[in-house]
Design brief:
Helix content: 25-40%
Bound molecules: adenosine-5'-triphosphate
Number of strands: 10
Number of helices: 11
Number of domains: 2
Oligomer: single chain
Strand content: 15-25%
CATH topology of the largest domain: Rossmann fold
CATH architecture of the largest domain: 3-Layer(aba) Sandwich
Radius of gyration: 19 Å
CATH superfamily of the largest domain: P-loop containing nucleotide triphosphate hydrolases
Distance between the termini: 25 Å
Shape: globular
């Protein structure tokens, strides 16, 4: 039997980004069943839950890789439910993936430059009109952003390396760099530390905090590493079987009985994973 959903009426004006009663169906199965939740400007907001709970599907609905069967999505109080993926990116909602999605035969810096592509002044460039000063300003700005990303994520030493030759931990860092090149307002991170050793995990966690604090980026994070989630999240939303079963601050979630029993099924294991 599925646990009861936490139903609520959210006011889009209270959140930077919110989803309202989202349903997503595949082959007659609801993989998201009426989820409503919202992230406030400047938060680090985690979405957790067991395997197959619908976490990645939520991110895919937000950045429109998937089209929800019903429900609404708001950004800055504006209904963006019908926006296309590139419109979502242009709003400043950037994304990294569970598995690294980079051009492995290209250098680190070229991958970062591709991330910036979304903010090119398409009015000028797509018309094929060459305005010298506008183009120079655009290029200078892009260079400045690229350099500050390289600095922030400490990847100067690999900037000319082909991505495919780098260890997994560094590839994940480059993926983060490419998402940052969009100058995002909101960063959607899908399992950023999965597959990493302790040192790499600590590095990425520090970078997420730096991005959040220095760039003022709002972060939505999916992660199975409960140590990271509990340490850095302001609030946590818990999904199980496509339903939201809890939402709150880490301390509340850590001790929530429904979360503990749903999360891993076995209480003792759940207690140790959630640090309760
Ligand atoms: N394109 C698709 N077609 C059919 N089913 C899908 C598709 N994408 C996701 N699903 C199903 O939706 C459910 C939720 O998947 P999702 O990837 O969102 O889970 P998750 O919570 O991110 O899990 P994990 O922690 O294992 O990554 C799963 O049962 C999955 O098989």
């Amino acid at each position: 039997m599925q646990p009861p959903s936490v139903s609520e009426n959210l006011n889009p004006g209270d959140y930077l980004l919110s989803v309202h009663d989202i349903f997503l169906r595949f082959g007659g199965v609801n993989v998201l069943a009426g989820v409503s939740t919202g992230v406030r400007e400047g938060e680090i907001f985690a979405i957790i839950g067991p395997n197959g709970a619908g976490k990645t599907c939520m991110l895919n609905c937000i950045n429109r890789f998937y089209h929800p069967s019903s429900g609404k999505i708001f950004f800055e109080g504006r209904d963006i439910s019908r926006f296309k993926a590139h419109d979502i990116a242009a709003l400043g909602i950037a994304r990294t993936f569970q598995n690294v999605e980079l051009f492995k035969g290209m250098t680190v810096i070229d991958n970062i430059k591709l991330g910036r592509h979304v903010h090119l002044d398409t009015g000028l460039f797509s018309a094929g009109i060459y305005f010298g000063s506008a183009r120079k300003t655009e290029l200078a700005l892009r260079k400045e952003i690229e350099e500050s990303i390289i600095d922030l994520l400490e990847i100067e030493h690999i900037r000319k390396k082909k991505v495919g030759t780098l260890p997994y931990g560094l590839q994940k860092r480059v993926e983060l760099a490419r998402a940052l090149a969009m100058k995002p307002r909101v960063l959607l991170l899908d399992e950023p530390v999965t597959g990493m050793n302790l040192e790499e995990t600590e590095d990425i966690t520090r970078f997420i905090l730096d991005i959040h604090e220095e760039w003022g980026v709002t972060v939505i994070l999916i992660e199975h590493d409960m140590g990271v989630v509990m340490d850095i999240s302001d609030r946590i939303c818990v999904l199980d079987f496509g339903i939201k079963i809890a939402e709150g601050e880490p301390e509340e979630i850590r001790h929530n009985e429904q979360v503990i029993s749903a999360y891993l099924g076995e209480k003792d294991l759940a207690y140790s994973r959630l640090g309760a």
